Amino acid sequence: xxxxxxxxxxxxxFTVVGVVVDQSGSLGFVASVQAQxxxxxxxxxxxxxxPALRNKVYEKLAEAQTFAEAKDYAGAQQVLDQMIAGEGKRxxxxxxxxxxxxxxxxxxxxxxxxxxxxxxxxxVVAQPDIPLAMEINTKFTVAQLYFVQxxxxxxxxxxxxxxxxxxxxxxxxxxxxxQGYYQLKDYDSALKNVETAISMYETEGKLPKEQWYxxxxxxxxxxxxxxxxxxxxxxxxxxxxxxxxxxxxxHLYGEKKDEPRQLAMLETAYQQDLFDRSSxxxxxxYLYLNAEVPYPAALVMQKGFETELVEEKSKNYELAGxxxxxxxxxxxxxxxxERAAELSDKGELYTRLGNVYLDGDQHQKAIDAVKKGLxxxxxxxxxxARLVLGMAHFNLGDYNSARxxxxxxxxxxxxxxxxxxxxxxxxxxxxxxxxMAKDI
Length: 440
Hints:
A hairpin with a 2-residue loop joins strand 1 (10-16) and strand 2 (19-25). By secondary structure, the protein is mostly helical. The protein has helices at residues 39-47, 55-69, 73-84, 88-91, 94-110, 114-126, 132-148, 152-165, 171-183, 187-203, 210-222, 226-239, 243-255, 259-271, 278-290, 294-306, 314-326, 330-343, 348-359, 363-376, 382-395, 399-410, 413-439; strands at 10-16, 19-25. It is rod-shaped. It is built from 23 helices and 2 strands.
């Protein structure tokens, strides 16, 4: 299964004199998360005393920020380097230093140095007495950076720390956590969090994202909770209609041994002209045959060949031929079985073709096909093929050849009884014809 975590959106923020400036990059599909402290954090906010950002420091940060906005990252870094060179670092208070590290982190992120960005963001939250909002937002960013580097366990740990500070984490945060647990194959924890995210959106009257439902569907399926997986698939079909969801629902009904619904789901997708693979047509045909409705099976295979969607393989022509034959359409079954035999490297299908010819009263063709199959080899039941050969010879009045074929078939215990019945019948038929000749 594909990884659900993919690049899309990350909010990087750095604070200058209480003003938050957002810089967007690409990391995870998680949007910026509004973070508010919980009750303990609120109390801390009331008592935490943040040092002031002095004007001269602000001016330097603003200068570096201007370089950064112009994508002159080297210029921005030079300004920051000068700020902490020598004794400069000691002269900065914790809040000022946090802003320097925050901007350093953004510069590293801008050149896709995620480990460097992570290192600086950790320095931000390591500073004492920074604004609580800054700490909360930075911790979320730290978690995201762990995830983008596929460091799932530390990412989860960082995100759980962020949850402790957040008053009302939104659904996307739960999805990020679910993705982390999914990567560690902790599917129970992943499912709990994705269910929470979906429930939050639905409660607010919003439509959860398609990939959220897909993650839930996979997790339900892994737990063999097919009922909830189907509920999720029906939701996907309603709001994100795609062929794959009809096909997956059909597969789940197959797992539940509910063959009528399994067929119904696939048939509905077919009627919407959603199929674009040979295997999908073939699967539908097999389901029709299992449901003992061969005529629709034959029709979908015929259309598949006509539109060049179904692959021209021996097995596919054999399936079409079998469907036509079961539908009592012998004349239509013959061309498919002929093509199936031609494409096969074994003689089995020629013997089956001989049987179809026999049903269609084409006895000489039946003889030729069976003989070709036996000569080619790879026939599963040579005794059954010789029974067909004997019947075809008999129908043409060649009793000696028929008798020989039945004697050969009788050498196999599986066909001995039936073959001997035919031999006796040939003898009685010959006697009947002799008696009739006397009367003429």
